[in-house]
Amino acid sequence: TPFNHTFSVCAVSFQGRPKGVINDWRKFKLESQDSDSIPPSKKEILRQMSSPQSRNGKDSKERVSRKMSIQEYELIHKEKEDENCLRKYRRQCMQDMHQKLSFGPRYGFVYELETGEQFLETIEKELKITTIVVHIYEDGIKGCDALNSSLTCLAAEYPIVKFCKIKASNTGAGDRFSLDVLPTLLIYKGGELISNFISVAEQFAEEFFAGDVESFLNEYGLLPEREVHALEHTKIEEEDVE
């Protein structure tokens, strides 16, 4: 998904990355440096290096020695400083990603569609970036109740996905949704049908739950990255760096 891409951008080396990414990293690193955090010993070295240069040979040798001290200091501490800065940069990337995920409508429950007109309006008028999962069902049909319960759980886990359900008899196309093809799942995005699964309960065991439906949809790449999992993943990675 794009976020993975975000993780990859944040987690991997910047070698071979586009110049814009490298420049963003350098800018972030420079802006994140706090003069108060510079050790007194390094401040003194920098102060000495910034003083007027003497023509005295001895002074010049001392300056070379001081310069080497700075190089040695940088070699010793560069790795740790880079890791800390990278961790801050990745955290900023995650915050940006979280804001993008939070943009737009949020749902969190399963919408009951009463008519075929409501069904069409839902498909046609939602934002193009919104994934819509529609369950065609009827009461008393095997698997329909379990799927409705599973979708209720998934709706809470994936609030940027719009989950809906409608009885086959209310669609206005009952001949297309006969009882032997229920439950049926239809997935739309941008007003287009991108996947459909008839008699979808046959894909699961006799008893199935939200986790089974989630895994099934993820196999086809129909669900986005869960926000909670994405943030937890980054937190774990930051702890590993520390």
Keywords:
phosphoprotein, five-stranded mixed β-sheet, cell projection, Phosducin, domain 2, Glutaredoxin, alpha/beta, 242 residues, 5 strands, 8 helices, vision
In short:
The chain is α/β, with parallel strands linked by helices.
Detail the topology: elements first, then pairings:
Layout: H1 2-11, H2 19-32, H3 40-50, H4 57-102, E1 110-112, H5 116-125, E2 131-137, H6 144-157, E3 162-167, E4 184-189, E5 192-197, H7 210-219, H8 227-241
Helix pairs in contact: 1-4, 2-4, 3-4, 4-8, 6-7
Notes on the structure:
The chain contains 8 helices and 5 strands, in the order H-H-H-H-E-H-E-H-E-E-E-H-H. With 242 residues, it is of the alpha/beta class. It has a 5-stranded mixed β-sheet with strand order 1-3-2-4-5, with helices on one face. Helix 6 links the parallel strand 2 and strand 3 (162-167). It is elongated and about 80 Å long. It starts with a helix and ends with a helix. Mean pLDDT is 75; it is low at 1-17 and 229-236. Keywords: Cell projection, Cilium, Cytoplasm, Nucleus, Phosphoprotein, Sensory transduction, Vision. Residues 56-65 have a biased composition (Basic and acidic residues). One of its GO terms (biological process) is regulation of G protein-coupled receptor signaling pathway.
What CATH architecture of the largest domain would you give? 3-Layer(aba) Sandwich
* Count of alpha and pi helical runs: 8
Question: How big is the Rg?
Answer: 29 Å
For this structure, what is the CATH class of the largest domain? Answer: Alpha Beta
**Total strand count, please?**
5
Strand order of the largest sheet: 1-3-2-4-5
- Specify the helix fraction band: 40-55%
Report low-confidence residues grouped into runs of 5 or more.
Answer: 1-17, 229-236
Termini separation (Å)?
Answer: 27 Å
What fraction of residues sit in β-strands? 5-15%
What is the string of helix and strand elements? HHHHEHEHEEEHH
Overall number of structural domains: 2
Overall average pLDDT: 75
Supply the helix-strand structural class: alpha/beta
CATH superfamily of the largest domain: Glutaredoxin
CATH topology of the largest domain: Glutaredoxin
Largest sheet: 5 strands, mixed
- What is the molecular shape? elongated
GO biological process, one term: visual perception
Organism: Gorilla gorilla gorilla
Family: Belongs to the phosducin family.
Domain Phosducin: 13-240
